[in-house]
């Protein structure tokens, strides 16, 4: 079974969240929070900082864990840790996924700051996160239930 921990980062600027659009072979395009797989020996804040830098070029600081959820399907178990980060100044730029082989088609296709109230207009994964992000952004990211199941 493929097992991994994915760290996704909520980065908010002026009421909009930073999202990354992926396009993989034989799959429809989809949007996610910037992030990726936690490497062995790496701490969650370090993973979030590294992934944000790789995908967006932004330096970011860890503010805390927002949600933990799980994805279980045949042959795959992923624990999703969603964190909140603050990004310093500067403009986000589309980076790259270092796991993609040199010369292969890039999987990262677009970066976009999306106002929270417009999240319903895009294919955001995982599916549960859209409503939670809209709700929590309007309430100022209140602390609360962290484990959201699967």
TrEMBL record:
Cofactor: Mg(2+)
InterPro entries: Nudix_hydrolase, NUDIX_hydrolase-like_dom_sf, NUDIX_hydrolase_CS, NUDIX_hydrolase_dom
Keywords, alphabetical: Hydrolase
One of the record's GO molecular function terms: hydrolase activity
UniProt domain Nudix hydrolase: residue ranges: 2-138
Lyase keyword on record: no
Keyword Nucleus assigned: no
Family listed: Belongs to the Nudix hydrolase family.
Name of protein: NUDIX hydrolase
Natural source organism: Rubrobacter xylanophilus
């Amino acid at each position: 079974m493929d097992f991994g921990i994915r760290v996704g980062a909520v980065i908010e600027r002026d009421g909009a969240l930073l999202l990354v659009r992926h396009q993989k072979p034989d799959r429809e395009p989809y949007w996610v929070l910037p992030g990726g797989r936690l490497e062995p020996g790496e701490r969650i804040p370090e993973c979030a900082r590294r992934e944000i830098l790789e995908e967006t070029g932004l330096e970011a600081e860890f503010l805390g864990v927002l949600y933990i959820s799980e994805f279980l399907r045949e042959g795959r178990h992923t624990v999703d840790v969603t964190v909140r980060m603050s990004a310093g100044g500067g403009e986000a730029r589309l980076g790259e996924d270092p796991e993609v082989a040199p010369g292969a088609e890039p999987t990262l296709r677009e970066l976009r700051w999306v106002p929270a109230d417009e999240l319903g207009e895009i294919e955001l994964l995982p599916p549960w996160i859209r409503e939670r992000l809209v709700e929590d952004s309007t309430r100022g990211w209140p602390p609360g239930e962290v484990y959201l199941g699967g």
